[in-house]
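Chain A, query sequence.
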Amino acid sequence: MSGLLLRLAGPLQSWGERSTFDTRDTAGFPTRSGLLGMIACALGRRRGESLEDLAPLVFTIRIDRPGIRLIDYHTAGGGLPSGVKIPTADGKGRPEGKGTVQTWREYLADAVFTVAIEGPDTLLDEIRRALIRPRWQPFLGRRSCPPDQPLLLDVTVDDPVAELHQSLPLARQVTDDDTEVSVEFVRATGDPEHIRSEIYDIPTTFTPVDRTYRPRPVWIEKTMLPADLGVRRLRDYPARLAAYVRERQ
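Chain A, predicted structure.
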């Protein structure tokens, strides 16, 4: 096995990049920490368990559809009696008149990403089996964001990154006049001219109350792909994808 291909699609996705306290943002693409968390979930890893064996994994992300950014406004604690207040950091209840907690949570709606995963064959085979029969339900960044199926494209490919460029159907509509389509790729390495600012998405611990991350550079490159990878009608995409999987199993 030389690599795996994932399809990340669903009504909503959210890949936190700088989420703190009341504002829960999302990056415009799946983060490394989000992808490792999804894999760890499928493997049955508990929060706080070591992720060192997953460090060799390399992700290349093709942004089929960037989606639409939505903000969901939440409140909690409003109207609770004085003895059941939301606790503050010092363990006391929130003061009178300030019992309601507000949060703003960002999501990507109708986004589709395809991901090539490269790494040691033994590790990839373990991940493949886990994604086929996950220990716990994988989700797209947040537990409220279940993935569409298929999540894992269970195919045999020699070069998963080349599949993103040459063969894997693109979840995007094209016209009869198009010969090429511009698609963004998110890479772990690349030309410094395309470098994005550092993103803190290398997890050092996934413990529930003390999650820490290290920074890494991210390269986002626009690449022209053959329009034949796209579809004339979006409703034709599932059939194209199913045919692609059948041909490579």
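DSSP finds four helices and eleven strands in the chain. The mean pLDDT is 88.
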